[in-house]
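My hope is that you will study the record closing this message with an eye to the fold:
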Amino acid sequence: MTQQPVAVVHLTAPAARVITTELRTADHTTETGGILLGHHTRDTVTVHHAGTPGPAAVRTPTYFLRDLAHAQALADAAFAADSSVWVGEWHTHPTGRPVPSARDTATYRDLLDDPELGFHSVIAVIFAPRQGRWTGAAWTCHGRRVAPVELTISPVDGPRREDPPPRPRRFRPPRRPAPASPHDEPSIAARSPQPGRTHPR
């Protein structure tokens, strides 16, 4: 089935549950996050599995590096369960807005540029605190463009895909970023993501 540029990121209930649990229990002074695994069909990415940072993750107020072995173990299990593959990442901006930073954008473009990973698009779901709750926004990186897309949450899992199963993607450690100010400007034009799409409690 032909993949189109992403217009919707759809979180299933199990994926949303992992994220909301992490948001509720994590240290909110540092970033947290994890991988997203699912299927890209037409213009929609359905996320069936969401990861946590892992015990060896590096977390600071302005970035985090996920635990590579932890992420790979989840990816292997998800692929075995329902052929889900790595479609992107989620993380928090505890001191900023739910908008990709210049560092985030560079990471997504590195993933797209790696021919072994075979990404068509990379999705990101970013959460930031607003008026005492976490507000999420979804983004897609396709080509050289990063743009906001619709984020929805379903109370039930969607049907299994009927496409031929994809091959699993192996993880590579990201480049260690240089320290940055929590006030880094985003690398895209100031365009607010659609509000109210998801408000994990």
Remarks:
- The first helix runs from residue 13 to 25.
- Residues 3-153 form a domain with the Cytidine Deaminase; domain 2 fold (CATH 3.40.140.10).
